[in-house]
Amino acid sequence: MFITPAYAQGLGGGSGLGSFLPIILIFVVFYFLLIRPQQTKMKKHRAMLSMVKRGDRVLTGGGILGTITKVKEETDEVTVEIADGVRVDILRGTITDVLTEPTAAGSAPAGKGGPTVVGPGANDGKSGGLLGGLFGGRK
């Protein structure tokens, strides 16, 4: 009915490595499920930002769509036209996605009828599901 003192004292013993094993295992799981995918996502985003050019249609972090009219390399800023004659200077880091090249007025963009997204948020059909990229679900 009650735990004897001798049995209770035997539960606390163990090697130092054995007591740290769960913590090490949790760190390994966190690395493969959280840290490593975030690092690769950040690397792709930096590469996308370094390749933006004049005429690209972009989505900013605030949800504003616009077309890049000027890229200032020395200050890490870009000028984006968000409406006819309305231009704003934004930091390059606030660009979340680069959309396809703008099409002529009245013509439908190529593809499935909507703008095709290229960059880290792209759904290129190769992800293989929620965990497909993590577990090698590439086609």
Quickly count the helices.
Answer: 2
Q: What overall form do the CA principal axes indicate?
A: rod-shaped
Poorly predicted runs are 106-114
Which class of one domain in CATH terms? Mainly Beta
Structural class: alpha+beta
The separation of the N and C termini measures 59 Å
Largest sheet: 6 strands, antiparallel
What percent of residues adopt helix (DSSP H or I)?
A: 25-40%
Mean of residue pLDDT values: 78
CATH topology of one domain: SH3 type barrels
Strand order, sheet with most strands? 4-3-2-1-5-6
What Rg, in angstroms, do the CA atoms define? Answer: 25 Å
Tally of DSSP β-strands: 6
Query: Strand portion, in percent?
Result: 15-25%
Can you name the CATH architecture of one domain? Answer: Roll
Pattern of helices and strands: HHEEEEEE
